[in-house]
Write a structure and sequence with these properties.
The complex is a heterodimer of chains A (349) and B (75).
Chain A (H helix, E strand, L loop, with lengths): L3 E8 L16 E4 L5 H8 L3 E9 L1 H6 L4 H10 L5 E4 L6 H18 L3 E5 L4 H6 L4 E4 L7 H16 L7 H4 L16 H13 L29 E6 L3 E3 L15 E4 L11 E3 L7 H5 L7 H10 L4 E2 L2 E4 L7 H17 L4 E5 L2
Parallel strand pairs in A: 1-3, 1-4, 4-5, 5-6, 7-11, 7-12, 7-13
Antiparallel strand pairs in A: 2-3, 8-10, 9-12
Helix pairs in contact in A: 1-6, 3-4
Chain B lengths: L1 H7 L3 E2 L16 H19 L7 E2 L18
Parallel strand pairs in B: 1-2
Classes of the chains: A alpha/beta (349), B mainly alpha (75).
C-alpha cells in the first residue's frame, strides 16, 4: 500500500516551542514529526510518514482569526499532504478552535481529508463537529498515544476513502447527518426489547437522543400588576390575512409582529392561521381562542393590568428547530424589553 | 402539552383548554367560553406574580401550585 504523506498541526506547547510565553508565536513549519506529532508517526507505522509539523501559538491564531488560518493553510499546502492531523487539543479551547478551523480549511480549500481530536466540552467541538471529523479525547494528555491511535485510524480511513461506520461505532462526534440503514428487527420489536431491558435494570440506549435543554432561571415575579405592561405572544400560527411575513407552516424560521392598537377585539375576517400541526378550524373562527386580546383589553380597562402591549408576536411552533426557536425567542424578548414590557403571556397549542 | 413545557424548562406554566383552542372551547356558549378564557388569563397573571425557582405548573385548583416530578419527562 502507498505510504501516505501526513502533515501534523500543533500549538506552541505540544510542538515544544514553550508555554504561554510562546503563545504569540506565528505560523512556522518543521520537517518531520516534532513534539506530539511523534505519537502520530508511531501510530501511523508503515502506513504513512509525517513529512512536516506545522506549528503556531494559540494566541496568534485567536488574535488573527482572519489571516492565521490562511497562513497555516499555505504552509500545509506546500507539503502536498494526503492527510492532515491536527491536535489532539484535549480541553484547550483556543487550541481546539484552531484545530477545527484548520481542518475545515484543509478539507474545503485544499480538498485534503483532515481529522482532529478534543474533549467533548472543548468549544471547538460545537463549532466544528458538523464540518470536521473530531475524535473524543480525555481532558488532558494522559492517554495521548491511545487517543492518537484512534485519531490516526480514522484519518487513514478518510485518506483511503474507505466508508465510515456510525459516529458511535467509529468513534467521532456526530456530524448531524442521518443515513438509512437496514436493521433486523422492526421498531415495535426494538422498542419492546428496550422496555424489557429497562425493566430488568439493564442499560438502554435510545434511538432518539433527546436534546439537552439548558435550565433558564425564572424571572422574578411581577410586583405591581396594575402598573405592568403585559404582551401577548403565541406559537400557534396566528397571522394577518395573506400572511405578510410568510411565516412557514412548519419548521418556522420567521415570526411576525402585529399591531393591535385600537382594537378592542380581533376581527376574525382580518386574520388567518398557518400552523400545520393542529386543526386550526376553531382558532380561525375566533382568534381569541388562541390570543386572548378581548379578555386582556377588559383587564386593561378595569385597571387590573397597567397596559396591554400594542404589538403581538406570532410564529408556528411545529417541527421548529431548537436553534431557530431560541433565536426567535431572543429577538422577540429583546424587542419586548426595549418596548418596556414587564411580562409575557405566551399561548401555545 | 404541559409535560413538554416542563421538559423544555418553561418556568411558569398554566394548563389551557386544549391544543385546538387553548384559550377557548367551541362547544361552550359564547358567554361560557369567555368566562373560561378569563379564568385561564387570570391564572396566567397569578403565575406571573408568583415566585418560582423551577418549571412550575399552576394547576386548575384555585391558588395551588403543583411542582411536577422531574422523572416522567422523556421516559
Amino acid at each position: 500500500m502507498q505510504t501516505l504523506r501526513v502533515v501534523c498541526y500543533l500549538n506552541q506547547f505540544f510542538g515544544q516551542l514553550g508555554g504561554e510565553d510562546k503563545a504569540g508565536v506565528g505560523p512556522q513549519v518543521m520537517p518531520g514529526a516534532v513534539g506530539a506529532a511523534r505519537a502520530v508517526q508511531q501510530a501511523l507505522g508503515e502506513a504513512g510518514t509525517v513529512v512536516a509539523t506545522v506549528l503556531c501559538g494559540d494566541n496568534y491564531v485567536a488574535e488573527h482569526p482572519d489571516t492565521a488560518v490562511a497562513e497555516l493553510l499555505q504552509l500545509v499546502a506546500a507539503q502536498h499532504p494526503d492527510l492532515v492531523v491536527t491536535g489532539p487539543a484535549f480541553l484547550a479551547g483556543r487550541y481546539g478552535v484552531a484545530c477545527g478551523a484548520l481542518c475545515a480549511g484543509v478539507q474545503t480549500q485544499l480538498k485534503v481529508p483532515a481529522v482532529t481530536g478534543m474533549h467533548a466540552e472543548n468549544p471547538g467541538v460545537e463549532l466544528y463537529r458538523r464540518q470536521v471529523y473530531i475524535v473524543p479525547t480525555a481532558a488532558e494528555a494522559t492517554h495521548m498515544l491511545d487517543e492518537v491511535r484512534r485519531l490516526v485510524s480514522l484519518g487513514l480511513k478518510l485518506a483511503r476513502r474507505q466508508p465510515l461506520a456510525s459516529p458511535t461505532d467509529e468513534g467521532y462526534f456526530p456530524r448531524g447527518l442521518t443515513h438509512n440503514t437496514l436493521v433486523d428487527h422492526n421498531a415495535a420489536q426494538r422498542a419492546t426489547a428496550m422496555l424489557l431491558a429497562k425493566l430488568a435494570g439493564q442499560q438502554i440506549v435510545s434511538e432518539v437522543p433527546l436534546p439537552d435543554f439548558p435550565q433558564i432561571p425564572a424571572p422574578p415575579p411581577i410586583k405591581e400588576l396594575r402598573h405592568a405592561t403585559i404582551a401577548l405572544v403565541t406559537d400557534g400560527g396566528f397571522v394577518p390575512q395573506g400572511n405578510p411575513d410568510r411565516i412557514e407552516a412548519l419548521a418556522a424560521t420567521r415570526y411576525g409582529a402585529y399591531s393591535i392598537q385600537g382594537q378592542q377585539q380581533l376581527d376574525p375576517g382580518q386574520y388567518d392561521n398557518v400552523h400545520r400541526g393542529y386543526d386550526t378550524t376553531y382558532v380561525k373562527q375566533d382568534p381569541h381562542r388562541l390570543l386572548p386580546v378581548d379578555v386582556a383589553r377588559e383587564l386593561e380597562q378595569q385597571g387590573a393590568i397597567g397596559k396591554l402591549h400594542e404589538t403581538v408576536y406570532s410564529t408556528t411552533g411545529v417541527a421548529t428547530t431548537l436553534a431557530h426557536s431560541a433565536r426567535m425567542g431572543r429577538e422577540i424578548a429583546a424587542q419586548l424589553r426595549a418596548a418596556g414590557v414587564d411580562a409575557v403571556i405566551l399561548t401555545s397549542t | 402539552m404541559t409535560p413538554v413545557a416542563v421538559m423544555v424548562g418553561a418556568n411558569r406554566i398554566v394548563p389551557a383548554a386544549g391544543i385546538i383552542h387553548p384559550l377557548g372551547n367551541a362547544e361552550l356558549s359564547a358567554e361560557d367560553e369567555k368566562t373560561l378564557r378569563r379564568r385561564i388569563v387570570a391564572k396566567a397573571l397569578q403565575a406571573l406574580q408568583t415566585e418560582v425557582v423551577q418549571p412550575t405548573v399552576f394547576g386548575s385548583d384555585e391558588g395551588t401550585t403543583t411542582k411536577p416530578g422531574g422523572e416522567q419527562a422523556g421516559t
